[in-house]
Amino acid sequence: MPAADERKVRDVIAEGLGDAYQLVLRYHELAGQFDDVAMNEMTRLQHQIEEVDGWQLELRIEQILERLGLDGDVLMSSLSGGWRRRAALGAALVQSPDVLLLDEPTNHLDIETIEWLEKQLLEFKGGVLFISHDRSLVERLATRIIELDRGTLTSFPGSYQTYLDQKEKLLEEEARNNALFDKNWRKKKNGSGRELKRAVPAMKVGCGR
Prior knowledge:
The protein has a two-stranded parallel sheet with strand order 1-2. A two-stranded antiparallel ribbon has the order 3-4. The protein is mainly alpha-helical. It has helices spanning 9-15, 19-30, 36-51, 57-68, 81-93, 111-123, 135-141, 160-208; strands at 99-103, 127-131, 144-149, 152-157.
């Protein structure tokens, strides 16, 4: 989650654009200067901005602000944790990513913000890979569960409930296999003991001769 500092919300979202947006900001800083050094620098920046379609970046930022219901001029220090998380999501969405990676996205959010977040993620056109202990969120959003159990990754296609059903069957099968292993092991152990008892007298008889 972004820090509650003195940055504007617009600046936090713009950080998601990396160096490309910094070129635009630098161009605007030089726009009021008319000496040869500044003009040459602006010409160089203009070529770089055009190469990355940088003139559209400000429009993308405004679209994200509107979509997420954020005021770009508000300071992060004045926002609650839920609204700062919105700004963090904006910084990710402004990049137009193919995949979103989210770690416990509903932590510290109220119910209204969680519902808003779910709606945003359901409308997202790319893939979403998220880690969450929020079972309600997982049930509503997940189409595949990837489980890490005892050092092994297992993929379960389907909803969270489908995962629970499949997991239960796997655990039952594992319990049966363990019980069968224990039974065979005890049988083998007991059989070895009987063979040892029969073998010891035979050795004594042989030694007596």
